[in-house]
Description:
This protein is an alpha+beta fold. The protein has helices at 12-44, 46-51, 54-149, 170-181, 199-208, 218-221; strands at residues 186-187, 196-197, 226-228, 238-241, 249-255, 258-264, 268-273, 281-284. The chain has a domain at 150-284: endopeptidase domain like (from Nostoc punctiforme) (endopeptidase fold (from Nostoc punctiforme), Alpha-Beta Complex), CATH 3.90.1720.10.
Amino acid sequence: MSHTAHIPSHRKPRQRASKSALRAGVAGGFLSTIAVAGAAGPAQAEPVTQTIEMPTIASNFSAAAAASAQATQQLALDIEKQADQDAAAEKAAKDAKKAHAEAVRKDEAKKKAEAAEKKAKAEAEAKERAERASRSTERTTLSASTGSSGSSSSGSSASAPSSSSSNVSGSAASIVAFAKAQVGDAYVSGGTGPNAWDCSGLVQAAYRTAGIDLPRVSQAQSTAGTQVSLDNLQPGDILYWGGAGSAYHVAIYVGGGQFVGAQNSSTGTVQRSMDYDRPTGAVRVL
Length: 286
């Protein structure tokens, strides 16, 4: 009997070795297969490698998203800009329409005013013609009356043209009558008649009907006679505004608290109450 016969599993290590070798062989073969597959793998997996490019897809997607957002923002800005332009155009159209309506209204108002002014001017001219005709008749009557009574104050009375001077006689009556006959005539600086006067030209012409020659200017006329109080006036007295000797305006007192004077270019020759423009003083020549 061998000295190793008592070892029951003397052959097992060999079996394990065989199994290990087999396993090693199998493993080696498997690994070889993998190696072979690995070697052949790139040629077979090339399409997969070409389609899977994640970083490139992500980058392109981000760029597309940014471009889309920018385009959307630009579109919104364009829409807002267009809306503003439309609103501005609509407002401009409304303003233009309103301005046109206002221009039409003003034009119509201007035409109406011009028509009214033209009508008033025509009426004033007609009235002035009638007044001039009346004054001409009155002057003719006055000249005849003055010629028959003379220029002296002999006590004969001349009829006055109005109740305010109905008690005036002689030279004063002719002065008052002449002054009143010029009411409505124009005022012209330096005017001495027959249809346009300045203040001293009218006074000088009125006194000339009574045979009295007065100085031409108001300053000298304000000292041409005796100074009298405004509370003691008589028809025919000369009223003045400003100082005696430096008066800037004169007129003729016609009785009843009224005067006749060539006032200014706006009013012409008028008969007014002394309360209209209170004179400074008065002088009596008669």
